[in-house]
Amino acid sequence: MSMRYVMDSNLDDPKRIVVVDGLKKFLADTYTLYLTTHNFHWNVTGPHFNSLHQMFMVQYNELWLAVDLIAERLLTLGSFAPGSYKQFAQLTSLPDVPDSPPEAMEMVSLLMKGNQLAARTARCVVPDAEEIGDQATSDLLVSRIAVHEKVAWMLRATLAG
Hints:
Blueprint: H1 13-43, H2 49-76, H3 85-91, H4 104-131, H5 135-160
Helix pairs in contact: 1-2, 1-3, 1-4, 2-5, 4-5
Protein name: Ferritin and Dps
InterPro entries: DPS_DNA-bd (IPR002177), DPS_DNA-bd_CS (IPR023188), Ferritin-like (IPR012347), Ferritin-like_SF (IPR009078), Ferritin_DPS_dom (IPR008331)
Family: Belongs to the Dps family.
């Protein structure tokens, strides 16, 4: 991990590196999910167009704000924030979307799975953040887990209809 500057805190440096690396993966997942959600917002068609178009817009706007919070937390911890497609592709646990837009309900399914994966990535970092007493990172991640789980539930409910 390349640190930008020395962090003046009582956070354990070796474990802080583990937390930073996990945050970078979570940032990549969040950005990838943002991009996928925005893509689906643009390309959704069918009888549920209006409701899905609106739902996806709410979701991608929320994700856009989250990307900034996660990146700023990385900077606060003394790291850089990855920001290229290449870096995100290497770090994310989310699969890329098909070249051709899928059907509307497949979009919903892919976003549900993406939110579940993002929550899983965040959940993996929480114990390390808590171990070093990094409550700010832990709080950010726990908040994001709640958002991703709620969105996944809403998308699952949409599929059930």
